[in-house]
Amino acid sequence: MIQKHPSNHHQQRRRKKIKDTTATTTPEEQSIETKDPTPPPKSSTSKKKKRKKSIDAAEDNISSTNKVESTPKSKSAKSLKIVSTTKDSSTTTSNKKAPNTPESSKSTKGGNKTSPKKSRGTPKSSSKKQSSSPKRKHTGSPKLVKPVMNTKVHRLRFLKLHQKSILSMASTPIQSKSSSSSDDNVNRSVQRLAISREGGSVELVCPQDRWTSVGIVPGIRKREVDALVWVCGNGGEHTANIEALSSSSLGSQKSHHIKLADEQRYLYGCSRDGTIFELDFATQRQTGVIGSGGGGVFCLVSIGGYFAAGCEDGTIKIYSVFDSDGEKNVSPQLVATLPSAGNAILSLAWVPGQGGDEMGGSVMYAGVADGTIRRFDCATTIRQGPISTGSVLIPSRGSTSLSYRWRSTLRMTVENRGLREPTKVWALKALSDGTLISGDSLGHVQVWDGTAGTMTQTFDHNESGADVLCLAVSEDENKIFASGIDSSVRCIQRQCSPPSSDATQIVILDSTPVRKWISSNSHRKHSHDVKALAICHKKTAGNCSEPLELLVSGSVDTRVCTYIVKDFKSSRPKIWYNWSTQSPISVSRKQRLLAVTRNNRIDLYRLSDPEMADRNRNQMNMLISEPRDDSKSLVKSIAIQSHFNLSCSVISNDGKYLAASDAVSLYVFSLEVEDEDGVFDILPTKLHLNSDCKQPATALRFDDKGRLICATNNGPINILKISNDDKISLEHAFKEHMVDWSASSHHFPVVSLDLSSDGKWLAAGRFSSGKGAVHVFTLPANADDNDDDDNDGCYKHWWSIPEMDASTTCVKFLGGGSVESSLAVGCSNNEFYIYNLGRRSLSHWSNDMGLPLLKSLPMELTARSEPVARIVANPASPQRFILVSMSCFVFVS
Asked: What is the pTM of this model?
């Protein structure tokens, strides 16, 4: 934030108070204050009485807004009653006046709307007059309601569940400027953002779906992904297909286009252990792992179907993702090695060549650990004989071959201000006009003439000289964003072009680095080091023609913040908590055990007995919370001996079995519970699995009939039967939901599994082509019964729910037993649909609400920034359930 001048601070504050007084008082009060601005003195007793009345009224207002029934605006939403209890309810009631307070009734009647900021600056005289005025009748005031569900909520503080620090980010590149406008807009609307976190995991986030996590690669232990890069290939055929599909407005063809776009995007990562690999979100594994041959890899950069890696020994390796026929290689193929710079390569920037040839004529800049920036140029030659080192051979149809030769042309030295150690160039960005931007360890953001090799401007990112670790450039290349250890995100932008009547002169000024750069302003939303910056595009409802350009920052404090590039100075950044749609916690209700998934182990916690808690509450006349000491709550930690991080785990309802999976295998344990003389202990025993049962899973679920449902990472959903003697066998495998899958197609695995309370229905949800895909299966009532003639007594694919407008985040069965089962599906845009399984259609309630449902839901639910992540329901109350998001519980009746 930019501080105002201290001499004008009091005048602006006084003007704000006068403005607030005018906005919050009625016309009658304004006339009174105008006639007599200084009210007559009052006795101390009257002041005390009036102060007491205002305090009592404020307390009544705050207590009445703790649980308020939200009244929908549309007529079709009258059957929906939502009671929302948020974490920031105290902040909301203190900053915003409740609808039934005298102040809000006056403003509503008078037509003046008071913002939270203005209400704080209201003078005391006006607040006293408003509190002493009689209450006025107004329509639309919410009524107090009783709690709709009798639920016990356990607030556990000792689980220590928190996200890991962010190390790097990479957004999918958009099409070139030569592509059509319709193709460009559609590609921006389907952008993906990859986030690498400490511990080796990589998440895939969809900005269009409220930054929902749609895929994850748990990674390998002790191998952190230090850099990420996207590679897009096969541009000719893919672009033609996209243009044909973009011209049509059919939803199915648009979904198919999104699938084609995902199939042509490949994400690669590197680590300081010297490995380069591809990140496959379908199998949740690192595939095509190769060694760099030059030590640790610190940075990656790509153009077209190639990417370059900066190695520890000072060499730059260039790899090709596709072969000569345009088919993707199993692992990246080394095509060129640039001469060593003598020190580690810390950063890279690559500018593609002119015309259709991407590598020919391209320029690469490298930030070296010795405090220099090197420039390498690529020249194109046609050769008929063998090639030398530093050349890339591209076979052609004729007898000759096309060769690319790299050579070092410039060496730029970064100042060190008399320090013994050379300055480290941590970040580089190259612009299309030849300008080079660098961020170094002295806290400088420097602008270079990449053609001449001279520095033109220098900016201090912060006063303390903290390192600048990352840079980002807007799409029009007129704004530079820098951040690092100082944690503030600073914007540096070009000066506007001088006004001129000659249009050609303006174009020349825009295309040459003549205009000076100026430091604009900065935001400090993070509390720790910012490790990564990226540019993303998000399609908004208000501006449908052009997607909104956003700057994304990732920090050690685990948070992701977004900034509007166009209005960076005036708009405030927004924080997003993109937790995974799959919960790391499972519960055993009979044994009151909690299983928490860690990277290398599973921790089992035990909740206290509710009868003992009630007895203590009656004796002490207060609520006894759950114990916070790990030694009292933690029962057992089951370590998994593997090189891969765990992806999911689940404990059975009776507490007899525990299942866990990583990227290569499935693990099942039998648990023996011992509770003697007040000592509670669990003895785990690992069970033997056949090769058919060892398939790694992306989602797990136990039922009450001794069956384990496993959604495997290669597609099928396996049903494993556990016998009384703890022998596990494969009973059935569902493959009907894989009809449109192929070996080369891009797909996301199943991450949501749910069983009905009577054990007859199974629902599986996954992310598919920008939308959600939910499949419903039937299960036999008895584990030994598999009669194909009965729909309710066999393994059968029952229904594929039609794709919705937004991606699916959670599924939950409602009812069961004597009550007809229905399925509730939550979406990333906070919609939720209820389906009747018997009729294979929407329920009567969903039909009455109308389609799309988003227009009929209350604004209190649809306007929330975070998506619905869970649906909780009690089988005894099939007409009521809870929507759970990051910051609130929404009770739906």
From this structure: 0.79
